[in-house]
Design the sequence.
């Protein structure tokens, strides 16, 4: 009923708007929700779904359910109080860079409805670590969160690649007290050469720089691109294990333009193949799943994986979990399906557990490999 209301009511209105304007409207609404306990109670009664079989403890953090908000939606951590009332089990804010930056010129966000996909080249537009830390400080003086908060860190565009480690470290220091887990994002296609940081030497240098700041031993994860070849993924995994990284987020958006139905972007009129940016949603789903399988096999299931890429329903989430993801994240699915998607996935996961005779979600993690 509510999902039909989104599909036939709200979505056509939002999709009539410029994608970034629609996003800003969504964030503004969620910001209101974040600041109002009355609105949160109303949202909770509609969107929240609870079943003890979906809860688990990971990195000493309680995840009431395994479905989280992916990075890039709440870049400035402006709506952190909204995400639990919409049913998410955790939320990841950012990407945040040490320097505030405006990102790439607009238009930089495009819908590809025929592919259930989005193309974005936002370029880490965000207010910067210091401003966001100040805002989080004042938010936490009045409110608290009921779900784990992840903070995703990236490199400022103005910082040379060789100095990247200092940039990540500065943001990590400024935001340290506010995050339950942190993400080293080295996989966005929209900051020039950022993905070169996935090379083992560069990644090692960043992780080594963060280690002494991490006095409370908070979980640090690495987010990787789907476009790395398998040998490079195995190398990244080895570095992550060497530096006792808490987990890997697989994956970010893809620069591949293969198998797209969409040929041209309606806003620019240009062939999609000529437009810079990363594709999310359905086209990245299978590669993201393959990467999860590869990480699981490489680590023999010992390194927690956060599965993300093209999750639109419970089946998509289930496939990622049985491939080895302990928890999953959603972004593009939220755009196409609306906030009811979370409850739908959670209800569907419970049905899957029952159908497989499993007692809880932990038993499903990596099931495909057993
Ligand atoms: C508009 C947009 C902006 C994004 N920004 C970020 C970002 O700042 N940092 C990041 O790590 N991932 C970012 N992502 C990638 C998502 O977190 C996710 O990894 C990817 O979209 C695949 O998931 P999905 O298919 O559910 O969207 C962004 C995705 C979209 C669509």
Sequence:
């Amino acid at each position: 009923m509510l999902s039909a209301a989104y599909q036939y009511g709200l979505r056509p209105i939002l999709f009539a708007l410029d994608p970034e304007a629609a996003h800003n409207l969504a964030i503004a609404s969620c910001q209101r929700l974040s600041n109002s306990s009355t609105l949160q109670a109303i949202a909770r009664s509609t969107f929240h779904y609870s079943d003890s079989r979906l809860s688990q403890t990971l990195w000493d953090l309680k995840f009431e359910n395994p479905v989280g908000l992916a990075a890039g939606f709440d870049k400035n951590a402006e709506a952190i109080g909204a995400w639990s009332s919409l049913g998410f089990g955790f939320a990841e804010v950012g990407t945040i860079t040490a320097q505030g930056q405006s990102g790439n010129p607009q238009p930089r966000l495009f819908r590809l409805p025929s592919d259930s996909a989005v193309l974005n080249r936002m370029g880490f537009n965000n207010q910067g670590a210091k401003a966001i830390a100040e805002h989080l400080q004042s938010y936490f003086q009045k409110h608290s969160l009921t779900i784990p908060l992840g903070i995703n860190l990236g490199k400022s565009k103005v910082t040379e690649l060789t100095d990247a480690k200092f940039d990540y470290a500065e943001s990590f220091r400024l935001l340290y007290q506010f995050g339950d887990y942190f993400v080293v994002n080295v996989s966005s296609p929209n900051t020039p050469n950022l993905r070169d940081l996935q090379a083992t030497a560069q990644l090692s240098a960043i992780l080594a720089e963060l280690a002494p700041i991490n006095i409370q031993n908070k979980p640090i994860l690495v987010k990787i691109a789907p476009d790395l070849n398998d040998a490079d993924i195995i190398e990244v995994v080895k570095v992550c294990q060497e530096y006792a990284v808490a987990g890997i987020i697989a994956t970010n958006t893809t620069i591949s333009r293969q198998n797209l139905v969409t040929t041209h972007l309606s806003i620019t009129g240009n062939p999609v193949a000529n437009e810079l940016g990363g594709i999310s949603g359905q086209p990245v789903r299978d590669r993201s799943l393959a990467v999860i399988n590869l990480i699981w096999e490489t680590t023999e299931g010992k390194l927690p994986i956060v599965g993300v890429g093209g999750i639109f329903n419970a089946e998509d989430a289930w496939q990622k979990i049985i491939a080895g993801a302990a928890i999953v994240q959603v972004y593009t699915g939220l755009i196409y399906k609306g906030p009811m998607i979370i409850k739908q996935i959670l209800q569907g996961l419970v049905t899957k557990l029952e159908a497989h005779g499993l007692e809880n979600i932990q038993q499903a993690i990596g099931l495909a490999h057993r």
